[in-house]
Amino acid sequence: MSLSFENKVALVTGAASGMGFAAEGAAVVLADVNEAAARASAEQLVAAGYKASAIRCDVSDEAQVKAMVEKTISSFGRLDAAFNNAGIQSPVSEVADASVEEFDRVNAVNLRAIFSCMKYELLQMRKQGSGAIVNNSSLGGLVGIAGRAIYHAGKHGVLGLTKSAALEYASRGIRINAVCPGIIDTPMVAGMLTSQADAMKEMMRDVPIGRLGRADEIAAAVLWLCGPGASFVIGQALAVDGGGYTVR
């Protein structure tokens, strides 16, 4: 089965944090709030012979999201695939002890930004009559875990957005799905392993495969969902979690 994205254009948010359209032939736009890291990743791809560019974007700012998509289109003429990957964590906290400010901070990135990204991506894809979008939810979008209510609320919301939008656009040549990673070896998780060590040890005990997932394993799932092999897959939440919480 070919995953080739030759002559296609892909947009990835949160692209500086480690979550391979380029290897499959696509022109890739890497967007991240950390412009230096996104630019370094893009330069590495270009040096290896791939087509890539970087954009600074704070996805919690709708104006920046609009500009990100517009720049992608002005640079490459179209948008064929998007992975809305950017996300942040929240500290472990009981609901009664959590603040509204923390809820708003986390879900401005984890939920509202997914809506903003989809909105502007879909405006272009609707014109084209084609495209594929994958939203990054989490195992936290499929289950509940004590102390994680703020994070899980947003990740559940991502699945609601994904399913509803998928129904709106399925008949118009646009497929929308979500990926639900488990505990993946990324800088964000590395920080959690340090700052929330006890909670992370508890979570790892529930991962039957016995290890952290890898970023390339998430990338492979996203590539499949965006590619022709998943042409009949609409509105799904694909768990990539090592057989953890979602299997039990």
Task: Please characterize this protein's 3D structure.
- This protein is of the alpha/beta class and 248 residues long.
- Helix content is 43%, strand content 16%.
- The chain has seven helices and seven strands; from the N terminus they run E-E-H-E-H-E-H-E-H-E-H-H-H-E.
- Strands 3-2-1-4-5-6-7 form a seven-stranded parallel sheet, sandwiched between helices.
- Strand 4, helix 3 and strand 5 form a beta-alpha-beta unit.
What is the share of helical residues? 40-55%
Rg of Cα set: 17 Å
Side by side, the strands of the main sheet go: 3-2-1-4-5-6-7
Alpha plus pi helix count: 7
Uncertain regions: pLDDT < 50 for 5+ in a row? none
The secondary structure category is: alpha/beta
Overall mean pLDDT score? 90
Outline type: globular
What percent of residues are in strands? 15-25%
Largest sheet: 7 strands, parallel
**Beta strand count:** 7
Distance between the first and last residues' Cα: 31 Å
What is the N-to-C succession of helices and strands? Answer: EEHEHEHEHEHHHE
SSE layout and pairing:
Blueprint: E1 9-13, E2 27-32, H1 35-47, E3 51-56, H2 62-76, E4 81-84, H3 100-128, E5 131-136, H4 149-169, E6 174-181, H5 187-195, H6 197-204, H7 215-226, E7 237-240
Parallel strand pairs: 1-2, 1-4, 2-3, 4-5, 5-6, 6-7
Helix pairs in contact: 2-3, 3-4, 5-6
